[in-house]
Amino acid sequence: MNNIPEVKLGIIAVSRDCFVISLSERRRKAIVEACAANGTAIYEAHTTVENETDMLKAVDEVKKANCNALVVFLGNFGPETPETLIAANFNGPVMYAAAAEEHGNDLINGRGDAYCGMLNCSYNLGLRKLKAVIPEYPVGTAQDIAGMIQDFIPVARTLIGLSSLKIITFGPRPQDFFACNAPIKPLYDLGIEIQENSELDLLVAYRAHANDPRIQDVVKDMASELGASGNQYPDLLPRMAQFELTLLDWAEQNKGARKYVVFADKCWPAFPKEFGFEPCYVNSRLASRGIPVACEVDIYGALSEYIGTCITGEPVTLLDINNSVPADMYEEEIKNKYNYTLRDTFMGFHCGNTPFCRLKAGAVKFQLIQNRLLENGNTPDFTRGTLEGDIVPGKITFFRLQSSADATLHAYIAQGEVLPVATRSFGGIGIFAIPEMGRFYRHVLISKRYPHHGAVAFGSIGKTLYTVFNYLGIEDISFNQPKTMLYKDENPFV
Prior knowledge:
By secondary structure, the chain is of the alpha/beta class. It is 38% helix and 21% strand. A six-stranded antiparallel beta barrel has the order 10-11-16-15-14-17. Strands 2-1-3-4-5 form a five-stranded parallel β-sheet, with helices on both faces.
């Protein structure tokens, strides 16, 4: 993954000057040792903050150590003003955590009152309108806080990535595909840059890469990845390799002041005929390197994919919430084998953008629907280039960050799994099962006007996603609610 940041953590301990400073310092040292024991690298700032002068010195210390994320540790009650000014003066995500008391026979000189101090810390952060990550229960032992720090790392990685992200688009959305309704202002509110280009710009750049001497190396790499069974159209690989180089060069030449890039590209109906192939396999390859390429100029889809990539450090995909599972298939393959109702299941599909490593028996094929539309169902030529196969089974999180037409941000998160059941269909596709999906589909996806694209992370990352979305100020974060919890617009008499 060469398109996501590396987190370098620092820890600063704070101490209220009416408490023993050594208590905070000893507890800080124990956290650093606990982090080392679980394999978490963290820089220990030796300046303990009691006042504003200490604050400036400590922040300067972690900056000189190249820290880009920070833990502020209340080893005792803590000084409210200096400890919150750390977040104001440090350019990066900050987590606050507090020490639990250690021994029942040491509650006089050994009592730190950080349980109380965290309340005042939070209050002061609010007064200053400062953002910070505060764990669900932010008070603990050294081992507890080392665990909180491990949870903070993917959050920090995501926030750092978003702060230096540029989304590059090519072309307007296809006609009648409102998945790409994308007011730009919320991107700026999140600190994200966007560069919008024409399909013609991409075509000109692609043609300029004809006979690029690097093409054959990319062809060899593609053939190696696909293997004999997956490389069904060897003659197509040079065209796709040329396109891969075009996108990578465009990213490098146009990232400007930003460090990280994702794409949202128009991929039909004009693309395949003019370029000579479907771009799906190339899109999948870039996604496997941490550079998502969202289909159909889905800007917020690309953004969502990047968030999932930063959190997991692994490839993600973008899928249509596509079709229901036939009742007979459910009866034969799912009922009594898995604890899901028919309405808990659906098929997630896209033409062929899912990374090869996330498919069972993936192979380059042709886009059946586009072949009917653009080649009259004849022997495929330029509608070839999809990467198809059933998606590997396992835990997943389906999610999306989306701007509505009024430029307000909303998000949903739903954890579930891909079932080990053959889809009997085409494309990059899997049978998904999410508890109470039927109600979630009706009262979140439909009621809140979400488009048909959703990002898919391969793992259960709902906890981290929620923390990220909450930090970003997303007030409406939906999830698949249990039966005992009615949605706002759900009919209680059904």
